[in-house]
Amino acid sequence: MRTSVIAVLAIACLSLCGSALGQPPQPVKGSAGEAAAAVGAATTKPESFLNQAATQNVDISDAMMLDADKQDGWILHGRTYDNQRFSPLTDINLSNVDKLRPTAILQTGVPKNFENTAIAVDGVLYLSTADNKVMAYDAVTGQQLWSYIPTLSYSNLCCGQISRGVAVAYGKVFSAQLDGHVVALDARTGKLLWKSDHAEVLPQPAVFYSFTMAPIAYNGLILVGNAGAEWPTRGFLQALDANTGKLVWRFNTTAAPDQPGGKTWSGDSWKYGGGSVWNTPAIDVKNNLILFAVGNPNPDLDGTSRKGHNAYTDSIVAIDSHTGKLRWWYQEVAHDIWDLDACAPVVLFDTADEKGQPVQAAAHAGKTGIVYIVNRLTGKLIRKSAPFVEISDNFMTPLGPTPKTVWPANHGGAMWQPPAYSPQTKYFYQQGINEAHDYTVRQPLPEVYKPGTPIRGQYSGGDMPTNMKVFTPNGTLSAIDVATGAIAWQHKSDRPYFSGVLATAGGLVFTGEMNGDFVAHDARTGKKVWRYPLGAGVCTPPITYRVKGVQYVAIGAGGCHGGEIFMQNEGKAIFGDVFAIFALPE
Q1: Is 452 left (phi over 0), alpha (psi -120 to 50) or beta?
Q2: Are 493 and 439 a contacting pair, CB within 8 Å?
Q3: Helix, coil or strand: residue 558
Q4: What is the C-alpha to C-alpha distance for residues 78 and 213, in angstroms, rounded to an integer?
Q5: 3 state DSSP class of 170
Q6: What is the SS3 assignment for 413?
Q7: What is the bridge-based pairing of β-strands 543-547 and 578-583?
Q8: Is 136 left (phi over 0), alpha (psi -120 to 50) or beta?
Q9: Across the strands, what pairs with 528?
């Protein structure tokens, strides 16, 4: 938990891709203790609160999701399965964006880190806050329809009570929770329909596993990946049955000895090698691929117990969408000892290869400050971008007991925040973070974790406090030409960026800044053309949608994990609970 910028990251789990601050363990799912606890909780505090049932058509089908680009709403986490976050709507554009005004201000009642991508379905907004509170609102008036406030039973977590959103499909809202449960709610009323069973859908001991990513629905399945690579876990992306919550298949993110890449782990280290899936996958329907990024190996800074490249950590991974079997992986950082885990979403688009021939591509922006563009059928690297952040001369060099100041660090380069891609400009819009950390490795670590033994000291192996004497952390918003990897334009901010990006056919790029501004840039030039102050740090991805012929843009302002010191030093609100809806005047 970040107590100050200087003292941050006493353990490696303080990657901002991370999960939540621990609480005392609760009874295991299915046990008599949990049953008794559930009965007691039910008699004292309901979890679902219904103000008004949604009357709109919120029953999203597979056909609608496959055709999401033609929908007026924002029905998938990345708007479409390719995660481009590009909207074809043009009513709000360069000529009139300066007239954009708020039409509704929602207050969630949860003033904490707000990283949710909202889902908009036929005039209904679905939000998920820290601590997995899920709410439905009228997407025009802001009137609350219902809320679901779970009683969480989590422990052994770190880094803030994060939820990056929900999935809406088949008449249900799916939320992947900090306590390792996935729940399905009635999309009209918020009523709990099912809750996954730890004993069935999580490796054991389940206490080390949590979820912070937004799940996604595909072909009757709910895809979700675990947080918790800072603990002795074996990471995964898995598919649950959307009707029952039962496990259908699981892909593990550390390679076993009999799998491709299995020889890149020494001994049994692959069994507890980490590899979180922090963000929502992209799906290539035509080629039956699910593509996602995998986080850091475990232990984090001291890799002596996990000799080798540690496949599939710090990689772009493609698996078969029907079976969950591996197709290929591309590793950005081999044998990571700097916590440079891949945690941003993978984005799909078409580009030209090194010979100028058209190729189906996948791109991911790393903590290394580079966008990696690969052939999405083979995983072969097509090109790397120019660095979109500053890089120190000693970057990715060996560490030791003497502090070494390095940048970009584990909070630098690209974090979890989603980029956008515009098929109009052929630019990949990426936020970046310049932040220096002082790395220190404590050696030797105890031997790799064994079940039943204490875990303290076995998951990090060092410290990574922020060094503000070198420079104050700051941010970049870059437009990267995917055909060349060159930076077409770059806007610099005096604070890190954590919001994510939305690109539109109206020639605009929307994003948020840590100073509390919601802003729009000219997509081709980077010129800032509009801003609106929301009071708290804007670290929520923006979306846009249309209801009854009117285009809206919406974003949250809840403060930023890691931005506390900036707001506090200026006497501003550290956290907020605002979600704002904007439109042009009638």
Answers
A1: left
A2: no
A3: coil
A4: 12
A5: coil
A6: strand
A7: unpaired
A8: beta
A9: 521
Structure tokens at 434: 């310049």
SS3 annotation, 209-234: CECCCCCEEECCEEEEECECCCCCCE
What is the rounded end-to-end Cα distance, in angstroms, of the chain? 46
517 token code pair: 């501004």
Look at the block and give the residue holding tokens 């956290």: 575
For residue 278, list its beta bridge partners. Answer: none
The runs of H, that is alpha helices, within 88-201 are 198-201
Q: Which amino acid is at 2?
A: R
Q: pLDDT tens, position by position, for the chain (586 residues)?
A: 332 332 333 333 334 444 333 333 343 344 334 444 444 444 457 898 999 999 999 999 999 999 999 999 999 999 999 999 999 999 999 999 999 999 999 999 998 889 999 999 999 999 999 999 999 999 999 999 999 999 998 767 766 688 999 999 999 999 999 999 999 999 999 999 999 999 999 998 888 899 999 999 999 999 999 998 888 889 999 999 999 999 999 999 999 999 999 999 999 999 999 999 999 999 999 999 999 999 999 988 889 889 999 999 999 999 999 999 999 999 999 999 999 999 999 999 999 998 899 999 999 999 999 999 999 999 999 999 999 999 999 999 999 999 999 999 999 999 999 999 999 999 999 999 999 999 999 866 665 666 666 565 456 778 899 999 999 999 999 999 999 999 999 999 999 999 999 999 999 999 999 999 999 999 999 999 999 999 899 999 999 999 999 999 999 999 887 677 677 777 777 788 999 999 999 8
- For residue 283, list its beta bridge partners: 290
> Could you identify the residue written with the tokens 């809806």?
581
pTM of the predicted model over 0.90: yes
Please state whether 548 falls in left (phi above 0), alpha (psi between -120 and 50) or beta: left
Q: Which of 515, 502, 514, 517 is nearest to 551 (CA)?
A: 502
Q: What does the block give as tokens for 268?
A: 């049994």
Of 502, 510, 515, nearest in space to 560 by CA = 515
Contact 310, 334 (CB under 8 A): yes
Q: Please state the length of the chain.
A: 586
Residue type at position 566: F
Inter-CA distances, 498 with 76, 125, 150, 414, 540, Å: 20, 22, 26, 9, 7
What tokens appear for 344 in the block? Answer: 């941003």
Half-sphere exposure of 408 (CA within 13 A, CB side): 27
The string over 169-188, giving b where at least 16 C-beta atoms fall within 10 Å of a residue's C-beta and e elsewhere, is bbbbbbbbbbbbbbbbbbbb
